[in-house]
Amino acid sequence: MTAVMWFRRDLRLADNPALLDAVSAGDGRVLGLFVLDPVLWDAAGDPRRDHLVNSLRRLSDGMDGELVVRRGDPADVVPELAAEVGAASVHVSADFGPYGRQRDEAVEKALGCPLVATGSPYAVTPGRVLNGSGRSYQVFTPYFRAWLEHGWRQPVDAPAKVEWIGKRSDALRHVPDVEDAGEAAARKHWQGWVESVAAYDDERNRPDLDSTSRMSVPLKYGEIHPRTMLADLARRRSAGADAYRRELAWRDFCADLLARYPEAAWKPLRPEFEKMVYDEPGDAFTAWCQGRTGYPIVDAGLRQLAESGFMHNRIRMVVASFLIKDLHIHWKYGARWFLRNLRDGDLASNSLNWQWVAGCGADPSPYFRIFNPTTQGKKFDPDGAYVRRWIPELAAVPGKAVHEPWALAEPPAGYPAPIVDHAEARLESLRRYDAIK
């Protein structure tokens, strides 16, 4: 007997129920497979591709070097390999994304053996937390209460013994090696960071402190499961641990919504926003992408994204609000830019959080809540350290003055003037919103 473990968003050996099922079904003989699907590979930017390749190499190291990587359409690759080894079954963690569901249906039809889905990348699988009418929650707070009441299983250990079955594997492209990829790195980082979780509630909005967990990347690739993190949080009693638990619940909330409403990837959940008038993404959008809007906190975030493949969560909200409500550009363009450039680019979290800022999603921030980028900079980067780190043109500007370089007697050379007047842009956004109410 041999079973196939088809890895996707679960690039780990511990706390992987699908892998345990594969080991049981194959009497210990398992072929580990990852399919480089052109549909997903081509849609990703280099930050995600590079991290994925590094994570796959770490996973293979833990499998005695026997991870099989094949390029192609999974509906062709998986059945062919399963037939090649005479697999009794193929095992996966369930995928609830729009494309993932269609892909798995196609694979299941083409397979000559069962496709067995066990578990998911979430603490609580989408569709499990329902309101009294048997439907998905549209508001987070009652979802969160029901999510806590539903609970989740405890983490499980890695299988004690596996006989990994090797086959021909396609070569992975050469990418720069990074130390923070893979299961071992994710667990080490989490175990170190969680010791300081008590400060999370106070510091999570401060990009200058850089004290957030940075666990969105390991969660994206399944190098760690949220169950593992929740088990550690359960042993800690603090406002910080509570706040972090809510963030994990918000991740599940987004996945639950996208599973119920797959069109929400690119269309507003609130249909009245289909009538919203937006501007075409021309020169203003280019300036936004390049971090040259003239608003330092916005530009620092977009330059951080370009250089590191990451952006602090508070700053994600600020730059999103600026694109939508200062530049009047549809949120889908910003969402696509994030997916191309973020290492943690995740369709459900990305699209539903952009909709939250745009006021058109579930439990959204009210549309009239329009972030003032200057005020946000002064409040959450009070000494300007974050801005100075990412915008060298402003490195010599001291303190809070860095958030208003246009007010200096001699504005710094090389840094652009604001491309819009925030006060005027805010009034225009409110006018457009009034037209669809």
Describe the structure in your own words.
The protein is mainly α. Strand 4, helix 5 and strand 5 form a beta-alpha-beta unit. It has helices at residues 17-25, 38-43, 46-61, 74-84, 98-110, 140-150, 183-193, 200-203, 216-221, 226-233, 239-260, 283-290, 296-308, 313-326, 331-341, 347-358, 373-380, 385-390, 422-434, and strands spanning 3-7, 29-36, 68-71, 89-92, 115-117, 163-164. Strands 1, 2, 3, 4, 5 and 6 form a six-stranded parallel β-sheet that branches. Helix 11 (239-260) crosses helix 16 (347-358). Helices cover 46% and strands 6% of the residues. The protein has 19 helices and six strands. The mean pLDDT is 96. The chain is globular and about 75 Å long.
CATH architecture of the largest domain: Orthogonal Bundle
For the terminal residues, how far apart are their CA atoms?
A: 62 Å
Q: Using only CA atoms, what is the Rg?
A: 23 Å
Helix amount = 40-55%
**Mean of residue pLDDT?**
96
Low-confidence stretches: none
